[in-house]
Design goal:
The structure is a single chain. This protein is an alpha/beta fold and about 375 residues long. It is about 35% helix and about 20% strand. The longest helix is centred in the last third of the chain and has 20 residues, at about 340-360. The protein is globular, with a radius of gyration of 20 Å.
Length: about 375
């Protein structure tokens, strides 16, 4: 069996590549970057350089279709935001191989923070009060009570541009449009939890919940402390039943002072919780094929060790708690017998830094600029 895993820049892709290789599959990985992280792994048989999907979605879909035919791919597995372009291309790709994603309309509804919040209304675990902002006047109406709200673009990732209880003057500067809306979500204090789940036809196949104890700023977690609150699993099971979702999905939650969970947003792609299954590679792959009780992770925390040392350590240099947490966790990149990705982290960051410089974007923004989908029209219809 031959799998093509997309988003080779992502640690999640590396995790899946190792899991499939351990299960006896032939593993190819694809990306528009020349030197993505997973390319250097011994688990990978072949690297496929693809065009940038955001720049020309149809050219990207055509390139995928050609390689699926050429390499006799059995399963196409996305890990990052290329999933939206993949869903757009389902009419052209599903006749060629199994594609693990849901349809485009459902993914759009989940990706848009306002539409997702509306979806959860009346659920046992629901989103906080959320208002859609499509005009400057919508922002002005909330400016006076801005300290009670969190403002963020409806299409965004890594908490980029998120304003938590901002000053009224900041809210008055926002200029949302119907094409690029924002949302305001009622602020709830509490403990954040994140999830990773794998569903097939709405059925939960694997599930992990974790607390991102250390982050890159307000964005991506770099330390993943397992937790298994029943409310989170119940929510994901209800979500699967309501939507029939197929693919990987993550949710962000807040547990308030009374222990009640509130879902904040959805990421219809792989999240860092995939790493919590690194000691069960064959079982993880089998969840894609065979239904059964959902696979659950081990209780050992995971981390991106290099990021912990470069970003976390300078802030917590004399913290005993930080170093205790560091010693307790396993690195998600380093693996005995597979040391290539250790050095590849620096090579990949260098390539992204060059893109950031050439495109005049920040490093984090440049890391996904070519695969993001922010609601823009995908010109044309994929060929059936």
């Amino acid at each position: 069996m031959h799998v093509l895993i997309l988003g080779a820049r992502a640690p999640a892709c590396l995790e899946w590549a190792r899991a499939f290789a351990a299960s006896g599959w032939t593993v190819s990985v694809g990306d528009s970057l020349a030197w993505p992280l997973a390319r250097s792994s011994r688990a990978v048989h072949n690297f496929i350089r693809l065009p940038e999907p955001r720049g020309n979605p149809q050219a990207w879909i055509d390139a995928l279709a050609e390689r699926i035919r050429q390499d006799a791919i059995d399963l196409l597995l996305p890990t990052c935001e290329e999933v939206f372009y993949l869903a757009h291309g389902l009419p052209q790709l599903t006749p060629l191989c199994r594609v693990l994603t849901s349809d485009f309309e459902l993914l759009h509804r989940l990706h848009h923070k306002g539409r997702f919040a509306e979806m959860t209304r009346g659920w046992q675990v629901a989103a906080p009060e959320t208002r859609l902002l499509q005009r400057h006047e919508d922002c002005l109406a909330l400016a006076g009570e801005s300290r009670d709200w969190v403002f963020k673009p409806a299409y965004s990732r890594f908490a980029s541009r998120t304003l938590i209880r901002p000053d009224p003057s900041t809210v008055r500067t926002l200029r949302p449009t119907p094409e690029q809306p924002w949302v305001a979500q009622r602020f709830i204090a509490g403990d954040e939890h994140c999830s990773f789940s794998l569903l097939v036809g709405g059925q939960l196949r694997a599930h992990a919940c974790y607390r991102p104890l250390y982050r890159v700023g307000r964005g991506s977690g770099i330390y993943f402390q397992p937790a298994q609150p029943a409310a989170v699993r119940t929510f994901v099971e209800a979500f699967g039943q309501a939507t029939g979702y197929s693919g990987q999905v993550g949710f962000d939650f807040i547990a308030d002072a009374e222990g009640r969970f509130h879902v904040l947003e959805c990421n219809p792609r792989a999240t860092s919780g995939i790493h919590l299954f690194d000691d069960q590679p064959t079982a993880l792959v089998n969840t894609l094929i065979t239904a059964g009780e959902p696979l659950l992770p081990s209780p050992t925390p995971r981390m991106v060790a290099l990021a912990m040392l470069l970003i976390g350590a300078p802030r917590h240099l004399v913290s005993r708690t930080f170093w205790s947490d560091y010693r307790a966790a396993r690195d998600v990149i380093l693996r005995d017998g597979d040391l290539g990705p250790l050095a590849a982290q620096l090579l990949g960051v260098g390539e992204i830094a060059m893109r950031a410089l050439m495109r005049r974007r920040g490093l984090l923004a440049a890391s996904t600029a070519d695969i993001e989908w922010d609601g823009q029209s995908l010109a044309g219809t994929p060929r059936a």
